[in-house]
Design a protein that fits this description.
The two termini are 17 Å apart. The relative contact order is 0.17. This protein is α/β, with parallel strands linked by helices and 371 residues long. The chain is built from 13 helices and 13 strands. The protein has 2 domains: 225 residues, 3-Layer(aba) Sandwich (Aspartate Aminotransferase, domain 2); 121 residues, Aspartate Aminotransferase, domain 1 (Alpha-Beta Complex), CATH 3.90.1150.
């Protein structure tokens, strides 16, 4: 039970400080609030996180996925996606008219299992969408050769993995394009927003047309587009956060290292890190063997914020489950089902104090062996 002098520790804590507020006010006072110099500067700054790839800012991570897939993926195509992810990963595929094919995950990284991906490839497969879940890079060293072998596009969902890397290559710099989200609870944010990254300059230009009604010059529409622009207010906030994300990332990694070293409860498995991986801990996600609901209730009573991401795999959500049932289609995803039944995310955000970390570890260890 939480002491009367102890405040609950939130599972996540968005940072909106005076720097972010001043940046937003500065832009509002300038009168240039949409698709202006702040957006261009934010794109240029973010490119340093993705090996200097071209960056195209949009209004959300989902829009980033949608736009990137729209350039070449459509009806009749299949895209291989993990079911253990946020629904936006699969939704973006459906939005361009393509079919979602679910593949199972690795138990350690929670990312796509390369063997499961290879087994899921058909003549209709057009792309693979690895999701760098919780801030851990997917097995890109194994997935990229599979994609090359079958001539498939790789669209990275890096919405939870700003500055994560595998063997020195940052996520968002492996495939045809990468996507990031700047939602308030992400490792850095822009109030709301997203980014597409690509090594292809012509693709980047087309993405900029698509996000702005198909035009570069006003009323000179070149293609059919949409309104998926990022505001300059959001970009200004993002630029401030971009200057802080490296320090925040190291703090997240230090917090995770503390929890790794101090969580000893037999029923709790701390998150492994693959060799060569730079995990940035968007979430510190443990596995709990036994009664997860009871464990979460005890943690909440102790004032430790916790959550399950994601209790229902995408293939069991109504928009996917019902059509699959009607079509007689089933998915064999044992590691996905096991993860959905066992995972719990604990606080790891950079606002945690040493005392907070001690409380988190103590509360987890108090769960004991018999849940």
């Amino acid at each position: 039970m939480t002491s009367i002098n102890e405040q609950p520790i939130p599972a996540a804590r968005p940072v909106i400080g005076e720097d972010e507020i001043e940046a937003a006010v500065r832009v509002l006072r300038s009168g240039r609030v949409v698709q202006g110099p702040e957006v261009a500067a934010f794109e240029e700054g973010f490119s340093r996180l993705v090996d200097d790839r071209h960056c195209v800012a949009v209004n959300s991570g989902t829009s980033a996925l949608h736009l990137l897939l729209a350039l070449g993926i459509g009806p009749g195509d299949e895209v291989i996606v993990p079911s253990f992810s946020f629904a936006a990963s699969a939704n973006a595929v459906r939005l361009v008219g393509a079919d979602v094919v679910f593949a199972d995950i690795e138990p350690g990284s929670f990312g796509l299992d390369p063997a499961a991906v290879e087994a899921a490839i058909t003549p209709r497969t057009a792309a693979i969408m690895p999701v760098h879940l919780y801030g851990h890079p997917a097995a890109m060293d194994k997935l990229m050769p599979i994609a090359d072998k079958h001539k498939l596009a790789v669209v990275e969902d890096a919405c939870q993995a700003h500055a994560a890397a595998l063997n020195g290559t940052p996520v968002g710099a492996f495939g045809a394009g990468g996507t990031f989200s700047f939602y308030p609870t992400k490792n850095m944010h822009s109030l709301e927003g997203g980014m597409v990254t690509t090594a292809d300059a012509e693709l980047a230009r087309t993405l900029r047309l698509l996000r702005n009604q198909g035009m570069e010059q006003r009323y000179a529409n070149e293609i059919v587009g949409a309104n998926m622009r990022m505001t300059d207010v959001s970009a200004a906030v993002g630029r401030v956060q971009l200057g802080k994300v490296e320090a925040w990332t190291e703090q997240r990694r230090a917090n995770a290292a503390y929890l790794d070293a101090h969580i000893t409860a037999p029923a709790v498995t701390t998150p492994p890190v693959a060799e060569g991986a730079r995990h940035v801990y968007h979430q510190y996600t443990v596995r709990i063997s036994g009664d997860r609901d009871a464990a979460m209730a005890k943690l909440t009573e102790a004032g430790i914020g916790n959550a399950v991401y994601y209790p229902t795999p995408i293939h069991r959500l109504k928009p996917y489950w019902e059509p699959d049932q009607k079509a007689g289609r089933t998915w064999d995803l044992p590691e996905t089902e096991r993860a959905a039944a066992e995972v719990v995310s604990l606080p790891v955000h950079p606002s945690l104090t040493e005392g907070d970390l001690q409380r988190i570890a103590a509360a987890v260890n108090s769960l004991g062996e018999n849940l």
